[in-house]
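BUG: 3D viewer hangs when loading the predicted structure for this chain

Environment: internal workstation, default settings.
Expected: structure renders.
Actual: progress bar stalls at 90%.

Input used:
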Amino acid sequence: MDRRDFFVSHADSDLAWAEWIAQQLVEAGYTVELDVWDWAAGTNLVDAMRRALKRAERVLAVYTDAYFAHRLSQAEHTAAFASDQPGRVVPVVVADCSIPELYAPLARIELLGLEEDDARRRLLDGVSADSHRPGSPVTFPSRAEFPQRLPRIWNVPARNPFFTGRGDLLRTLDGRLRQPDAEAIAVVPLRGMGGVGKTQLAVEYAHRHAAGYQIVWWVNAENPTLATNGLVEFAAALGLSTVGPPAEVLRLLWSALARRTDWLLIYDNADSPPALAELRPPDSGRLLLTSRNPAFGRFADLVEVGDFDRPESVALLRHRCPALSPGQADQIAAAVGDLPLAVEQAGCFLQETGLDVADYLGLLAAAPTHAGLDDPTVDRHPGLVAVVTASRARLRAASPRAAVVFDQLAFCAPKLLPLTPRRPAGDSGRFGAEIGDSATTADVVRQLTSLGLARNRGTALQVHHLIQALVRSFLSDSEQFQHCQQAQELLATVRPGNPDDPTGWSLYAVLTPHVQSSSRTHSAWK
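Structure tokens produced before the viewer hung:
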């Protein structure tokens, strides 16, 4: 068996530390196995972990709060800890974290707060006592930066200490931003509905990969004025003249950036592609965008940000509210539909109120605006209620017809509902609900998706069930009755064909959940 001195065990969010630690060990002559270095795409992770633990003399565990919340890293840690080999687990603490009582007696290597040279020295001193060094040095494939070092020019918001999961998305981002053809990938747009954590993902990416850049600058791009102001501040941070009109300052800024490739610019909450096109930087560096608007796919291929996976929801809920059991956290995650912002708000609300889980679930179903969804988050995000309220108001101002359809969708099932342009009587045509001609249909889809109120697949729309519940709670009883009736009238325009013809049964299967949902709501008022 190909023996290794160390297997480095870590949470996804601590990859930068894991790579830095592995690099120091390799350069010191140790043999090291690290998942991202040694496990190819398509690898069976459970089997790879089993084999890595078997061939490693010792397991170096990168201790952070995320490590103890991550299911796979804890499986690795538990298996190594259960070994009867003394000193098999080598804990390396890289962040202020709560270490479970069972592991507290283990001697640890503390790197928290150290400069790089001191951290390297302490790491190597800590592992050398009982380790065997091979006779010849091991060649390291590339150079890595110390994870704690920030770029000279930097204004990124503080890292969220409760950031959870998103390992695949972060790896996708890094792969896209670090392709060798810089011009082809200068822009990477992160897109998703309100509340899925696009901004948090961008912040986490910037912090994890800060050492790979000399300049990282964050710009609030909600509108052109805010974006321009942020870029003028950027120019000042670079020591450029900011005297004169903004257009002149931007010309100087773009000229300075064009001469270097070591920068990352982040436009957060970008709204309008045409407006932002005037503020597009040169292609020499990297631009990361966050937006709800799918039209940013005109700039580059979109990276879609969706809901949490269930284990991510459970981990964040239990991090925010440690008293929750895995089963209780799973119930709450299902109730909020794994929407990251709602998961965080629910966890905070339960921790602060101590409300029984069954009572909370009842409150969420009956009055979602009173179940913590109206609370701002620690990072000053306004909260889900404010997001939906503001987006709905903008929708009503931009397209009254789209606003009517959105309210009707609140009484349908939280599944895709196909829409189709209105057809002449007798024309079986395409399957879908009719809301108007082709222009109206296209406008409704564009308006709802650009504001992050619905997801689409073609002209089929889907509204998250928690957003549906909030919209219904905004309406009076008479308005709910009216919109529910309108939803049923909308569904009545669908023409799935003869119910006795088996070829049309798949269409009935698509329509049925929406009919059932609107019928249940309508029956409640009778």
